[in-house]
Amino acid sequence: MPERSAVASSPSATAASRIHPAIGEGTTGADAVAEILRREGVEVLFCYPVNPIIEAAARIGIRPIVVRQERVGIHMADAYSRVSSGEKIGVFAMQHGPGTENAFGGVAQAFSESAPVIVIPAGYDSDAAFTPPNFNAYLNFQHVTKSTEYVTRVESVPAAMRRAFTQVRNGRPGPVMVELPRDVLAEHLPHDASYEPVPIARAGPDPSAVDEVAEVLLAADRPVIYAGQGVHYAKAWSELRELAELLEAPVTTSLQGKSAFPENHPLSLGSGGRAHPRPVADFISRCDVLFGIGCSFTATLFGLTIPGGKTVIHSTLDPADLNKDLEVSHALVGDARLTLVALNEALRDRLAGKARGRSAAVAAEIAAAKRSWLADWRGKLDDDRTPLNPYRVIRDLLATVDVPNTIITHDAGSPRDQLSPFWECVEPLSYLGWGKTTQLGYGLGLALGAKVAAPDKLCVNVWGDAAIGFTGMDFETAVRERIPIMSVLLNNFSMAIELPVMPVSTERYRSTDISGNYADMAIAFGGYGERVTEAHQIIPAIERGVERTRRGTPVLLEFITQQEIDFSIFPAAPDGHRPRP
Ligand SMILES: Cc1ncc(C[n+]2csc(CCOP(=O)(O)OP(=O)(O)O)c2C)c(N)n1
Ligand SMILES: [Mg+2]
After folding, report:
1. Quick one: which of 34, 174, 187, 406 has the most CB atoms within 10 Å?
2. C-alpha triplet 369, 538, 536: angle, nearest 5°
3. Are both 192 and 221 inside the same structural domain?
4. Total domains present in the chain
5. Does residue 2 belong to any structural domain of this protein?
6. Residue 532's CATH number
7. Same domain, 214 and 238
């Protein structure tokens, strides 16, 4: 087989739409994949050796970012995609066997969050790929991917990659996998191949359904808008705001949708999640019509519980969401932006372009509910005792960082429920929310991937001492790959959120205790670490941390905290009555 460069010297494509030269005969499978990634705009390859695509990518100027474990690399790719609303796709490559086995958690998390990533495992040589006990990605990842493909011949590589990018860029986002056996990666293309970036197609809603929904919304007394991450992927932020202002309706979001609507807007209730501001619970319980846009309405402990007896309008990209967990009365299927554009137009027509003058009263009701909720939490937010109260750390973090230029994420455990209700987002995609599944340790990879995608932002992950046990070694990735994030660790030497469910094992065997000095760990890795024990040290430590990130050093601020497990949780009750937290 002749050795030729990945790109043939003379373009063989004749169609007018083709702008790229042929991928030349003799190109290896690995080089063909790298060239296709480059054509699809991929600039970084999250990866862990051994996979020859890493070398092939580096040869053509795609930066490999090598992690400490596969799971974290996929989390990074996931955030990288999210931060650009899926315009820049995060790609992860790893080796056959152990590398692929170890990637399972990352892919499963991306699947549950509907995050668009491309995962490219090398596979065992094709003659042994289906022989036990060899791990076969195609067989094993079926249920945690949007699509999985096993490539049998090098000449099938362009078509397989075309299918993968088409899947990842269109329809419901999700992880897409292409397993490439080692022999296929090493084989040479027997003839020239073509590859152009795939088209992106968006579908809008049925116009008659839009009219129907406009009528229902205008007839509602107390409508509430619930926005999911579809608004982020469709970049429908201004259209969402227009809808809220036209309808004069309050807005809440899922955790994934958090930051789709400015939370300092008079019509914002704050975001949903296991914990949420009381106005969210009040308005959801008393609404007559609930309009979900770009959301799945998935029943989850980490989202709002929608009480019965509501007229639910569900607008989603994926009809599989409809009536999955929540009975819906009206449905719109389509891209969130196209849907909102059409709906806003229908509403404007019916309102003769003018809102009905409800917003002052709605805003006043929200403001009063927010004030009384915050007053209930003042004691914890202002707490200056030692060990620190995590709510005080979050209060000071919010007051110190440049919020519009910060991208923050939580972790599983108490930090999620402590951060999400109180963190007020003002810019789209400034919060990476998650929780359809809640793998401890996800937040670090998200912050790292966000920082790679948005180097000018301050990228922060807030996590607990159990979470860091899962992925903490990848703080070294931050140092080595020069990704200056700020990691905020709430160390209470415990899996505090589990204390109520593990009283006997805790008392008899100390089973929920954890230990560690993580500031020292960060320093040992070459980062900046600081342990903070006193309330008056919180803000100066954050300021020092932010400054270090500006100078290019990853930071880990370790706050020694109380085992605080009081959360802003309001179990949904149809009568609107809710126990105090
Ligand atoms: C991979 C994984 N295993 C188990 C869990 C269950 N889990 C959720 S939170 C938690 C403990 C959290 O402890 P920590 O991070 O220290 O936060 P704290 O509640 O102490 O503030 C556990 C075991 C999980 N979410 N993910
Ligand atoms: Mg803890």
Report:
1. 34
2. 95
3. no
4. 3
5. no
6. 3.40.50.970
7. yes
Q: For residue 379, report the distance from its CA to the centre of ligand 1, in Å.
A: 25
Residues 69 and 108 in one domain: yes
Distance between Cα 467 and ligand 1 center (Å): 6
CA–centroid distance, residue 100 to ligand 1 (Å): 25
Q: 434 and 321 in one domain?
A: no
Q: Which residues, at least 6 apart from 96, have a Cβ–Cβ distance to it below 8 Å?
A: 121, 122, 123, 124, 134, 135, 181, 182
Around ligand 1, the residues with Cβ closer than 6 Å are 412-415, 438-440, 464-467, 490, 492, 494-498
Task: Clarify whether residues 83 and 161 are in a common domain.
Answer: yes
pLDDT digits (tens, 9 = 90+) for 401-453: 999 999 999 999 999 999 999 999 999 999 999 999 999 999 999 999 999 99
The number of the ligand 1 atom at minimal distance from the alpha carbon of 390 is: 21
Boundaries of domain holding 65 = 7-202
- Which CATH number do you get for residue 249? 3.40.50.1220
459: DSSP letter: E
Report which ligand 1 atom has the smallest distance to the Cα of 418.
21
* DSSP secondary structure of 194-263: ---PPP----PPPHHHHHHHHHHHHH-SSEEEEE-THHHHTT-HHHHHHHHHHHT--EEE-TTTTTSS-T
Other beta carbons less than 10 A from residue 164's beta carbon: 25
Distance, CA of 270 to CA of 279 (rounded, Å): 8
